[in-house]
Amino acid sequence: MSFAVDWSELPLELLQTVATNFLTTADYIRFRAVCSSWLIAAPINPRHLPREFPWLMLPLTSSIRHCFFNPLTENFYHLSLPESSHSRRPAGSSHGWLLLIDESPSIFLVNPLTRTKVTLPPLSSFPNVLKFDFYSIGKEYTLRAPENDFLYYYSLKEMRDSFVKKVILSHSPFNEPNFVAFTIIDKYGDLAYCKNGDDSWTIIHEARSYCEDVIYYKNSFYAVDKHGSIAICDINDHNSATRVRFLNMPQNIGGDMMYLVDAMGELFLVTRYLDFEIDIEHYHEVSKTVKFSVFRLDFHGPNWEIVNSLDDKMLFLGQNSSFSLLASDYRECKGDMIYFTDDYSGANYDGVAGYHDVGVYNLKDGSIEVLPCYPPNSHWPIWITPTLC
Hints:
This protein has 389 residues and is mainly beta. Helices cover 8% and strands 39% of the residues. The protein has a five-stranded mixed beta sheet, with no helix packed on it. A four-stranded antiparallel beta sheet has the order 3-2-1-28, with no helix packed on it. Strands 4-5-6-7 form a four-stranded antiparallel beta sheet, with no helix packed on it.
């Protein structure tokens, strides 16, 4: 004699025990999706889950679905994410949250797994944006240039794609409601920030031109200029004379791009070297990564010390807030690797050349493994660290 089992009526204590033994976010989400009783047994903010290996966000597979690729397992995950439509540009990711800029002034954060949304002050609230008029077709934004007070006009698409370079967060909005968003204004090289709940962005005039990259490190925002010097911005210090400190480096680092990384408590500067070629067929310049160099900040100098080996560390660079992981925390993973994405080519955003510079750089031997998962004619790739909280 056989008995039918109603899995939805399993004891809550048993379901909770099962839920706390999952080791991947994907399995945990599948468990919660079975039925309402299993959903109740598995809280939305599981603290026991280990940090997931970063996913690469791929283009929309339909009008609302995105595909995410895990380079470690080579698995693809399809998620409904209508918030990230073709009209919105990813301008950063931090703590598992994706920042999106719309063709309208809207700027907001969304968690790709939970679809929780947090609104930030719009593009029209930056101090150097004098006016936004939706009916002035092709000239919706009026901007004042800080160096000469000239007025410039930009379309919705131009502002979406080129006004903001990157936005990062101090903390996860889920864990810290008083988080700070910090941005590099690509158009003028300014730095700006807003605290959660603010109506507008505040520009840090003292640190202009420190616009290569920015990271939240030891309770302050660190920004780097093209020579490798650092501006340390403490936005909680209300005294404008002391809220920005500078570390002027004696050496000129070089490289075509720079990234700041919190490498397990040490501050790293990673320089990226590009090779430029002309795509004759499309009359378009194509850039390709050929090398990375890594430096460690010596605060006593201050100066940058060359790093010849990352040992067990892996670095993840791009439009995201750059970060590091230990390879020993993941099965079949190797240290001394730099995972990078194409975060420099505005033309590739529209897929003009159908090429993306995405891969893994081996610092030990200088070799590059190309990640083949990112198709042409698509938006900029970006790393996301999947999390439910």
